[in-house]
Amino acid sequence: MGLMKIMTYEKLKSLVKDEEINEICSLIEKDNDIFFKIMDFLGDEDFKIRENALMVIYDGIYSISWKYLQEIEHLILPRILNLFNDPIASVRAEAISLIFCLPEHLDENLPQILKISYELLEEDSIQTQRSAASSLGTAAFWFLGTKRDYKKALEIRLKLARNRDKVIRSKAIYFNQNIRNKFPEEVKKMEPVLKEIAENTIKLLKMDLDMSKDPIRWYKSGMEINNRKKFFKALNLIQKKLKVQPKHKDVWYELGKIYDELGDKPKATEIYKKILKIDPKDPLATLFLSYSDI
């Protein structure tokens, strides 16, 4: 008997309301139909239920089989798109984030994604602004890879770099080498911002960072000031971490991006493909491969 047959609607709703995301994802792994049932909560009158359901779906995608996702994708998409017009900004932000897990539908929805994300940057909630900034950063990668539209990618990066929030400005740091080559003057104008972000990051590093435990921060500070010595230090630390946690996808992402920035495209591609071996459904690894100029 499938879990969905014994899991009551109210019990499942209670888990969603309490943000028991890990527990729900564990249940989804055992019975993929629970994932489908979560979609019912996207129309709930309580906005927190809608918002939490989106977060569950975002994480739950990694718990279902690829075949099952293909079977129900046409049912997921319209429900997500419907939430682009939700009256609650945080719900709209979560919906925008989730659409990137369905990359084959990005092209047709990018204009709306950009419009809403820019609007969300003006919201009062800093968390909503930062969520929108993350989506815009991913959109910039998409323009780099799928469209090779470097001008549009630069436009998004400049918008983020001029934001008043330091965290949002940090989303603008990664300027693909093609952007640097095609728009050197525009990128040069950003150097004061890049330097300011680097200085703030270094302060944090000095205050509270154990380098051996968090090599990703080394990577970010190195990238921000474009200092190859720190890139190589980051490589060393990340590789040590991967010996302990060989399936830590976030660290593999950072390793791939360092090789990309250092100009070792074959090595970057090898890293992104390794992520897909860990998780064949991973949308970000696919996205990074699409913009990597191999």
Automatic annotation (TrEMBL):
<dbReference type="InterPro" id="IPR011989">
    <property type="entry name" value="ARM-like"/>
</dbReference>
<dbReference type="InterPro" id="IPR011990">
    <property type="entry name" value="TPR-like_helical_dom_sf"/>
</dbReference>
<dbReference type="InterPro" id="IPR019734">
    <property type="entry name" value="TPR_rpt"/>
</dbReference>
<dbReference type="Pfam" id="PF14559">
    <property type="entry name" value="TPR_19"/>
</dbReference>
<protein>
    <submittedName>
        <fullName>Uncharacterized protein</fullName>
    </submittedName>
</protein>
<dbReference type="InterPro" id="IPR016024">
    <property type="entry name" value="ARM-type_fold"/>
</dbReference>
